[in-house]
């Protein structure tokens, strides 16, 4: 990895539309930081599996967590190689032909093997996961049995690639002359609804501003 970008490898070299590919570290970090979920691909007992889960990036690692009984996490903790991907769909692209219809997106693919996070780093990462999802949210300290019931794995950002489509409509030249078809983009965003207090909330606890003004 040079300062500003990851080195492409045999695994991460893009074949189709390499012009949309990027190994830029800041771009890759930004995509990972915006994503709420990732999909983790791995092979277990000879079959491929792809499982969705939450993701956190800190520095040059991404973190996933869950129950030690989780088959994906235990396979990855035992050394199964992972392919982790995140996708942000920015717009639906309505072209003048089916061929011209597409999506604008930003995506990242990571190849890595996981390692267990133990000791003081484990509660720190669990706390960081909460803050990453809901910045400002306060929780009580974790109990030892909760920490024991949570497996945290980290994966180094080394073999990693991004792909970005941000061009909107790209139609074949003769289609631009048509006067009977609409074309354009429909931007998509995650927007938060009004927070709903838990039914068992003690009286007098106000809904915090971070919940009222949540933005992704
Ligand atoms: C929301 C969305 C919709 C898409 N829709 C289509 C579609 O309908 N049809 C289609 O052909 N393609 C689609 N793509 C692109 C698709 O993800 C692949 O990039 C494409 O199939 C080309 O693969 P390839 O053969 O060049 O790459 P491969 O040879 O399969 O991959 C080589 C390496 O390139 C990198 N790479 C490939 N794709 C991505 C990616 N998307 N993000 C980050 N790294 C990547 C990985 O490191 C990978 O190991 C879509 C992507 C996204 C995010």
Word description of this protein:
There is one protein chain. The longest helix is centred in the middle third of the chain and has 13 residues, at 121-133. Strands 1, 2, 3, 6, 7, 10 and 11 form a 7-stranded antiparallel beta sheet that branches. Helix content is 18%, strand content 32%. It has a single domain, classed as Pnp Oxidase, Chain A (Roll), CATH 2.30.110. It has 216 residues and is an alpha+beta fold. The chain has helices spanning 25-34, 71-77, 121-133, 144-148, 209-212, and strands at residues 21-22, 37-44, 47-54, 56-58, 61-66, 82-94, 102-112, 115-116, 151-156, 159-165, 184-187. Residues 11-12, 14-16, 87, 89, 103, 105, 107-109, 161-163 line the site of flavin-adenine dinucleotide.
Summarize the structure.
18% of the residues lie in helices and 32% in strands. With 216 residues, it is an alpha+beta fold.
List keywords for this structure.
Pnp Oxidase, Chain A, 216 residues, single chain, seven-stranded antiparallel beta sheet, binds flavin-adenine dinucleotide, 5 helices, four-stranded antiparallel beta sheet, alpha+beta
Give the arrangement of secondary structure elements:
Layout: E1 21-22, H1 25-34, E2 37-44, E3 47-54, E4 56-58, E5 61-66, H2 71-77, E6 82-94, E7 102-112, E8 115-116, H3 121-133, H4 144-148, E9 151-156, E10 159-165, E11 184-187, H5 209-212
Antiparallel strand pairs: 1-10, 2-3, 2-6, 4-5, 5-9, 6-7, 6-11, 7-10, 8-9
The chain binds flavin-adenine dinucleotide.
């Amino acid at each position: 990895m040079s300062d500003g970008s990851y080195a492409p490898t045999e695994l991460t070299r893009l074949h189709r539309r390499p012009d949309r590919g990027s190994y830029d570290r800041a771009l890759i970090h930004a995509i990972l930081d915006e994503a709420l979920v990732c999909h983790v691909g791995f092979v277990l007992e000879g079959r491929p599996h792809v499982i969705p889960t939450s993701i956190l990036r800190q520095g040059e690692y991404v973190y996933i967590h869950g129950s030690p009984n989780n088959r994906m996490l235990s396979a990855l903790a035992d050394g199964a190689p992972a392919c982790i991907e995140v996708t942000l769909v920015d717009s639906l692209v309505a072209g003048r032909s089916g061929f011209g219809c597409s999506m604008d997106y930003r995506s990242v693919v990571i190849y890595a093997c996981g390692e267990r996070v133990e000791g003081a780093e484990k509660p720190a990462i669990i706390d960081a996961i909460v803050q990453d999802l809901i910045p400002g949210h306060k929780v009580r300290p974790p109990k030892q049995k909760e920490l024991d019931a949570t497996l945290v794995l980290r994966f180094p950002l080394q073999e990693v690639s991004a792909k970005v489509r941000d061009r909107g409509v790209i139609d074949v030249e003769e289609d631009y002359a048509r006067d009977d078809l609409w074309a354009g983009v429909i931007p998509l965003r995650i927007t938060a609804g009004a927070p709903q207090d838990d039914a068992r909330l003690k009286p007098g606890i106000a809904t915090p501003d971070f919940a009222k003004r949540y933005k992704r």
